[in-house]
Amino acid sequence: MTPTLVRHHTQAEPSASVDTGSRARDWAEIQERMLAPLYEAVYTRLEVGPATRMLSLGCGSGLALLIAAGRGAHVTGVDPDLERLSLARIRLLPGPEEESGPGPAEPQLLESVAPPAPGREPYNLITAFTPIGCSPDDGEELVRTLGAAVPSAGRHSTVVLTGWGPPERCATDAVLRVATRLAEGPGAARAAGGRGARRDDLENVAFRSGLRPDGSGRVACPFGYADVDSAVRGLLSTRLFDAAVRATDRSQVEKEVAEALHPHLRRDGTVWMPNVFRYLVCTT
């Protein structure tokens, strides 16, 4: 079925010195696939399939939606980034030479959370696959997003929250500290380092959102890149370096990220960073 792109009035503000179109393509082509093991592990655990009516918060360019739809799920994605949503639409839209056969209801792509479309049942699964733990306020932002999303789900629905693992299990942690140091200074970088080790971050978000934790898991999601240039482009596409770009400039951020990647550069020129992510399964 053909997905629809619904535009609302709110729109993410582009960061200074950032080409949002190029960044969205880098996300879709380089970075988004790094979290595919997380998507697959969650879907397998929850037995996502034709009975699943999923709302994906921060759906990006649609890879998590595509995987869920491939299992037969009815999917709705939300992301304030119109460039990413446009790429998600391309991914989920059959080409002109293809015919849409019988299957799940058409995917919905929204810029902000909205109730299920007319004729659709309430969501029974909400996923928040953007990991928290990189900044002091990402948990706060997730609480606000869940406040808008949870009322659209039915009773006893499942909500999945995700976060970075402890720094000693996440090789990318040292690279991410470059963003904090450039944006706020060395003292701030030291204070922010190790936030991923706070095991109760996801539980705190769940409690504040009125959710009941009902199990958790950890998934290895190594970040692998063809070369340093691809790694820099992929990492900057995450939006985690936007404040650093505003505080300095993009070339400075690219230079320092490339330097931070040197310990993870292999002899064949590829970059490899093992990471572990944690997910928390909750019920409404």
TrEMBL record:
Residues 1-24, 94-117 are annotated as: Disordered. GO terms for biological process: methylation. It comes from the Bacteria. The keyword Methyltransferase applies. Keywords: Methyltransferase, Transferase. One of its GO terms (molecular function) is methyltransferase activity. This is Class I SAM-dependent methyltransferase. It comes from Streptomyces poriferorum.
